Amino acid sequence: MSELRPPAAPRRHLLAIGDLDSVDVERILETARALAASLDREVKKLPTLRGRIVVNLFYESSTRTLASFELAAKRLSADTMSLRSAGSSVDKGESLKDTALTLAAYDPDVIVIRHPSIGAPQLVARNTDAHIVNAGDGKHQHPTQALLDLYTIHAALGRLEGVHVAVVGDVLHSRVARSLVQALRIVGARSTLVGPPTLIPRGIEALGCEVSTDIATIGDADVIYVLRMQAERMAAGEAFVPSLREYTAEFGVTPERVRPGQVVMHPGPMNRGVEIDPRVADSDVALVADQVRAGLVVRMAVLYDLVVERPASASGTTVDVSGEGEFFPALAGSSHGEVS
Ligand code: NCD
């Protein structure tokens, strides 16, 4: 007798990289590549999310993440609204819940949230019917950054499996590092975290990475991924390094420390002259601008994937942006052309 199984439930949220498996990651990256190809052609705006509402709720400062989510939603023809509360001392429990309930009254399809507290996206998920995307919660997770980094590495090196990434710097305060290590593991890549012992959390190897306190280790990697010194996450008076000058001397990524064939990445914002030498940041081996560009198509792909795609159609479905196929199932029957 054949086993009867209920169809897979649609994935509701992107709260952490752990929400995804390798099929999900591959599908999102494929969608992003298809979108990039379509944006390279004359079509700059797609009707995919016409009539949908995407809200960006940012309780922490942001340049590229907020800008790219806004543009991603607009390129997919969604109505967007961005709320920022940078600098205010909003109560992180009740008032976030109240904000979520207020927003829920407008029936948003997606809420993208960045918040200094770990778990804030989950709280919003519990209090609205929207799909939630975590755009960074404290030092916990930043899943769309990890996806755009995978996209960038794949575009530069032509593969992900077996790639070795050395992540250098302030790992302790970095949601980027945590998400990236997990994402690399999902796609069969390797990572080594490099920095002073005070900035590498104890037991982080459990995420599936190696750890080194010797900057020379970066010589073994294909990709040097530089992290910002996140002073805003260090309590006043806490000293994780003797001085920034000494940190730079010991761990700064300088031209002398980059060997031929390696590429260098940084999630931004960069502290030039601290964690990264300007000569490296401005060189051809730096993929920082590629990361920013990838951020747009990957965030478009994530919005598309949550709102339109269904896991049941994941395996074997190729994404078609030609306008002939199924890229816009939500709009089946309508024209797939450019929206003015
Ligand atoms: C990162 C962040 O905010 O987590 N930046 C980003 O999203 N591009 C990293 C950082 O702030 O250093």
Write structural notes for this entry.
Strands 7-6-5-8-9 form a 5-stranded parallel beta sheet, covered by helices on one side. The chain has a 4-stranded parallel beta sheet with strand order 2-1-3-4, sandwiched between helices. The protein starts with 21 loop residues before the first helix and ends in a 33-residue tail after the last helix. It has helices at residues 22-40, 64-75, 94-104, 120-127, 143-157, 175-186, 244-251, 278-281, 288-307, and strands spanning 53-58, 79-84, 110-115, 131-137, 164-168, 190-194, 210-212, 223-226, 263-265. The chain is an alpha/beta fold and 340 residues long. The model is unreliable at 312-340 (pLDDT under 50). The protein binds N-carbamoyl-L-aspartate (NCD). N-carbamoyl-L-aspartate binds next to helix 2 and helix 6.
Topology:
Elements: H1 22-40, E1 53-58, H2 64-75, E2 79-84, H3 94-104, E3 110-115, H4 120-127, E4 131-137, H5 143-157, E5 164-168, H6 175-186, E6 190-194, E7 210-212, E8 223-226, H7 244-251, E9 263-265, H8 278-281, H9 288-307
Parallel strand pairs: 1-2, 1-3, 3-4, 5-6, 5-8, 6-7, 8-9
Helix pairs in contact: 1-5, 1-9, 2-9, 3-4, 5-6, 5-9
